[in-house]
Write a structure and sequence with these properties.
By secondary structure, the protein is an alpha+beta fold. It has a single domain, classed as HIT family, subunit A (2-Layer Sandwich). It is built from 3 helices and 5 strands; from the N terminus they run H-E-E-E-H-E-H-E. The structure holds guanosine-5'-monophosphate (5GP) and zinc ion (ZN).
């Protein structure tokens, strides 16, 4: 989608630090990291949010996000120490960029706390 920040990053029109890639997804470093490792795993296909997944998208995209996240944490040796995955959805969920993405946070003991 032409006016989408993450589509521009995927297309290489806006720079980002690429951490891992697959046919269906790419992982980039978050520009404002909230943990020592803070990656964003993006489907290459533009889907605005979880609400916008078709059933076929859901079957294809969600495993692809988890597969790339798993590869990333395995490569960084973070499986054993642990990590957190988060998908913010919609305004109340805290979503600010409307191209579906999974946050992967790791590298330190994360604060335990969700919700407002
Ligand atoms: P959300 O709030 O939608 O779940 O997460 C959006 C994330 O995108 C935020 O953590 C924010 O720091 C990150 N972000 C926003 N703009 C950019 C950018 O231009 N480049 C990168 N790499 N991350 C960005
Ligand atoms: Zn997009």
């Amino acid at each position: 989608m032409s006016d989408c920040l993450f589509c521009k990053i995927i297309d290489g029109k806006i720079p980002a630090k690429r951490l891992a890639e697959s046919d269906a997804a790419i992982a980039i470093a978050d520009i404002t990291p909230q943990a020592p490792v803070h990656a964003l795993v993006l489907p290459r296909k533009h889907v605005a949010s979880l609400n916008d997944l078709t059933d076929a998208d859901r079957r294809a995209i969600m495993p692809a996000l988890y597969e790339l996240a798993d590869r990333l944490v395995a490569e960084k040796g973070l499986r054993e120490t642990g990590y957190r995955t988060v998908i913010n959805n919609g305004a109340d969920g805290g979503q600010t960029v409307f191209h579906l993405h999974m946050h992967v946070l790791a590298g330190a003991k994360l604060n335990h706390g969700f919700g407002g």
